[in-house]
Amino acid sequence: FNEEIKGLAAVSGVPLGNIYHARNLDFGLFMGWDRKTHTWTITEKLKPLVVNVDFKRNNKTVFKSTSFAGYVGMLTGIRPKEFTLTVNERFSVDGGYIGILEWILGQRDGMWMSFLTRRVLENATSYEDAKNELAQTKLLAPAYFILGGNQTGQGCVITRTRINTLDIWEIALKLGRWYVLETNYDHWEEPFFLDDRRTPAMKCMNKITQANITLQTIYDVLSTKPVLNKLTTYTSLMEVSTGKLESYIRACPNPCNPW
Ligand SMILES: *[C@@H]1O[C@H](CO)[C@@H](O)[C@H](O)[C@H]1NC(C)=O
Ligand SMILES: *[C@@H]1O[C@H](CO)[C@@H](O)[C@H](O)[C@H]1NC(C)=O
Ligand SMILES: *[C@@H]1O[C@H](CO)[C@@H](O)[C@H](O)[C@H]1NC(C)=O
Ligand SMILES: *[C@@H]1O[C@H](CO)[C@@H](O)[C@H](O)[C@H]1NC(C)=O
C-alpha cells in the first residue's frame, strides 16, 4: 500500500503530507510600556490595524496576506497552491531594527526586507523560485525568511545577513525533522536565556506528534505562553493546498510574559 500511495502522489502531484505554516507576529518591544494596563503601547496600537488583504490580478487572487492597514510591506502571505511566506526579525550588530521601523531607516544600498517579500509574493511562482530570490537579494537589514512549499518536505528557514545567506535549514523527513521552527534566534545557537520561546514551542510540537498536527493543534502551540506573550499582535495559520489563511488578533491574559 505504501508504494502505491507514493506512486499515486508522484503521478497526481498531490503531496503525501499536507504542509502547514503558522506564526505569531510579535512587535513593539521597548517602544513604550503602559503601566496601567500592563501592555506594550505599539503592540496595542497595531492590533486594530490587522487586516487580511487579497491581492488580485485580472480579478483573480494572486496572493493573500495578513498585514497592518497602511503598511505596504508583507510580513505574512500565501500564494494558494504554491507557497507560504513569513518574515521574522533577526537582531545583529550589522542590522539595526527591521519591520515597521524600516520606515525610518536611512538610505542604504539594499532592499527593504518586507518589500522583497512583497515582490516574491507577487511574482515568484514556485517554492524554488521564491527560495532563490529570498536567498540572493541584497537587503537593508538581516532577517529570517520562513518559506513553505506545496510538496512534502518543502519547508525552510533562510537565515540572512544584509548581503548573503548564512544558512538554509530545511525539513528533512528522513532525519525525523518534520518541522522547522524559528523564534528570532539562529537555529544553530541557543536562544537568549531571557527569551526562550523555542524550547516550549518544540516541547508542544513534539508532544502533539506529526500524526496529530492540524491547524487546530498548531493554534494551541501558538497559544501557549510564552510563545503567546504581550507582544503578540496576531496569530496566522496557513494551508497551502487549500489556500487557507486565517488570522486571529490576540490578547495574553495575566499572568503573561512581557515577551
Ligand atoms: C470580479 O469578481 C467578482 C467576484 O468574484 C465579481 O463580482 C466581479 O463582477 C468581478 N469583476 C470584474 C470586473 O470582472
Ligand atoms: C505546486 O506548485 C507548482 C509550481 O507552481 C505547480 O506547478 C504545481 O501544480 C503545484 N502542486 C500542487 C499539488 O498544488
Ligand atoms: C512583478 O513583475 C511585473 C512584471 O514583470 C512587474 O511589472 C512588477 O513591478 C513586479 N512586481 C514587483 C513588486 O516587483
Ligand atoms: C492523536 O489524536 C488522537 C485522536 O484525537 C488521540 O486519540 C491521540 O491520543 C493523539 N495522540 C497524541 C500523541 O497526542
UniProtKB/TrEMBL annotation:
Q: What molecular function terms (GO) are annotated for this protein?
A: N-acylsphingosine amidohydrolase activity
Q: CDD domains, per this entry?
A: Ntn_AC_NAAA
Keyword annotations from UniProtKB, A to Z = Disulfide bond, Glycoprotein, Hydrolase, Lipid metabolism, Lysosome, Secreted, Signal, Sphingolipid metabolism
Q: Where in the cell is it found?
A: Lysosome; Secreted
- In which pathway is this protein known to take part? Lipid metabolism; sphingolipid metabolism; Sphingolipid metabolism
Family, similarity comment: Belongs to the acid ceramidase family.
Name the record gives this protein = Acid ceramidase
State the species of origin: Pygocentrus nattereri
